[in-house]
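Thread: "does anyone have the structure for this chain?"

Original post by V.I.:
We have the sequence but no experimental structure in hand. Need at least a predicted one for the grant figures.
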Amino acid sequence: MKKLKMKEDTKNLLITYGIVIGAYIIMEIMMALGLVSYQIQGLLVPLCYYVVLAVSLNLTVGILGELSLGHAGFACVGVFSGTVFSICMQDVITVGWVRLVIAIIIGAVCAGIIGFLIGLPVLRLKGDYLAIVTLAFCEIIKNVVNVIYLGKDSAGIHFSMTDTASLGLAEDGMVIIKGPQGVTGMTKDANFTIGIILILITLFVVLNLIKSRDGRAIMAIRDNLIAAESVGINITKYKLMAFSISAALAGAAGAFYGHNFSTLNASTNNLGYNMSILILVFVVLGGIGNIRGSIIAAVILTLIPELLREFSEYRLLIYSIILIGMMLFNWSPKAQEWKAVMKERFLKKRKNEKEVQ
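Reply from O.Q.:
Generated one for you, tokens below.
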């Protein structure tokens, strides 16, 4: 029985990886044949960014069972730490993809550390209180970034929270962060291939964590915290583990996303409250705890507004109807009963076919 369960788990993992790789191959073929518009091609990097954010947030919301509204804050940390590194190292590391990979790692580490430090006090809270505090953190990060002025010259790095003049840069100096104007002078190194690799790495980390002993402990905390504590599970340790890994993956996604722009700031690039809500919508619509569902929801809800651009007057109405329809299909009792019946029929049909063979 255990061996059959392991085979089923492995099969589900391979199906998830196969969906991502298959979508990548199909999209590459379509782009090579000129069947994809420039508008859709421009969405491919943001699409990868949203998928990674949705999967990583599902680790906190679906697997750990804690409601976090600060996910965009961790992405913001990754965006600015990764892009600042790239700008500073442009003359040293001349190969774009190498610089991007290192920036992604730096973004993940910085966001993971911030997630750990935030998680220590925040994860003692529950329910609405946790959501409010993480939301406040997200807005604090965005507003702190908006008042930072950072520059570099031959003397080193200069920092100020006043204006660019107060940096006191030499003639060879360069301003990296210009307060509300954000970061300028970046090279657009992000591409669809690196985005797909980042998605696969995120899936590998999250899915293997879920199937591991640590993952079972995290889900035990979600299902019944008192029972988990009574059998000796370290609640603080496993909560911090899930929260920090989720934050680190969001930071990696942010660093990748930041390299899709030549100019970037926290306000116009939607790195605040609205982004956190959007990612939460992906998780809820795809199914809380359903990693594959998060991927599908992120893709569909990212592409729909672009595909409905021709219907400019009715675009938001159609989008809302689709959103409601997806919610009903995923969560209404009747729809769940119908899906269970269809799944049972499908499995029965496959079993009969195998017996005939």
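V.I.: this helps a lot. Residues 2-32 form the longest helix (31 residues).
O.Q.: and Strands lie at 149-153, 156-160, 174-178, 183-184, 263-264.
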